[in-house]
Amino acid sequence: MLLIRSVVFNTAFYANMILRMIVFAPYYFLASRKAAFSVPKGWASSSNWLMGKIVGATFEIEGLENIPEGGCIFTPKHQSVWDTFALMPHYPDPVYILKRELLWIPLFGWYLARQRMIPVNRGARGKVMVEVMKRTKEEMASGRQLIIYPEGTRRSPGAEPDYRYGIARIYRDAKVPVVPVVAHWGLFWGRRKLVKYPGHFKVRILPPIQPGMQPDAFYKHLIETLETASDQLLVETVAANPHLPLPATALKRLAELKAEQKREQTTV
C-alpha cells in the first residue's frame, strides 16, 4: 500500500507542477516579479496538501514569530526534495542559491530565472563566491530572504555534519540576521527514495543570529545551534513516529545520543 500511495503521489506531484507552470505561465511572465511569486507559493502549498492527503505525511511549524522583517538569511538543514519548497509559502520574498544546472531545465528553469534565483557553478572556486555575494547583496537590499543550505547538499537524517565555510563569509558581508531551521523531512521523503512514509512532525524555526559576530565565531555558533536543535528534534520525531524505518545514520546518532545521556546521568 505504501508503494502504491507513493507512486500515486509522485505522479500527482509532477503533474501538478507541470500543469501549473503551463496554465499560469501568461500571468507569471507578465505580472511583476513579486506578484508572480504567488504561483510557486500556490504550487508549494498544493504539494504539501497532496503529501498529506495521499501519503499521510503532515507537519506543523514552530517559531514563525522568529522570522524578522526585511532581509535575512535562512539556513535550513537539507535532507529532502520536500524541504526545498515546503516552507516557501511562509517566506515573504525568498531567493535561493542553487546549482546552475537547474536553470537549464525547460520551463522550470525559466520560472527560476524569472524570480532572479542565484545560480552557482559548483566546479568553480573563488570567483563564484564573489559573484554570489554581489547578487546576494543586491537581492537582500530589496528586502528579500536568502535561502541557503549551509551543508551544500542533502544529508541523511542523523548524518555527521559537513558544513561549508561559505555561509560565514556571506554572513559577514551581508550584515543581516541568520535564521536557523531544522526538521527531519528525510525520514518521510528520503533522498532518492520512491517510497514516502506517513506521519506527523515538527519544523522548528529558531531565533535569529544577529549580525556582528566574527565569521569564525558565527560559523561555530551556527553549527552548534543547528546540530543541537536537530538532535533534539530527531529524538522527538522518532518518538512521535515509531513506525518509521530509520536510516543507518539516524540509528547511529540516536545510539550516540542515548550513550551521551547515560554518561551525563552517571556523572551526576
Automatic annotation (TrEMBL):
Give the EC number(s) under which this enzyme is classified: 2.3.1.51
* Pathway(s) per entry: Lipid metabolism
Q: Which BP terms does GO give this entry?
A: phosphatidic acid biosynthetic process
Q: Name one GO molecular function term.
A: 1-acylglycerol-3-phosphate O-acyltransferase activity
First-level EC class: transferase
Pfam families assigned to the protein according to its UniProt record, in alphabetical order: Acyltransferase
Q: Which residues cross the membrane?
A: 12-31
| Record domain Phospholipid/glycerol acyltransferase: where | 72-186
Write the record's keywords in alphabetical order, separated by commas. Answer: Acyltransferase, Membrane, Transferase, Transmembrane, Transmembrane helix
Q: Which domain of life is it from?
A: Bacteria
Protein's name according to its UniProt entry: 1-acyl-sn-glycerol-3-phosphate acyltransferase
Q: Which organism is it from?
A: Rhizobium soli
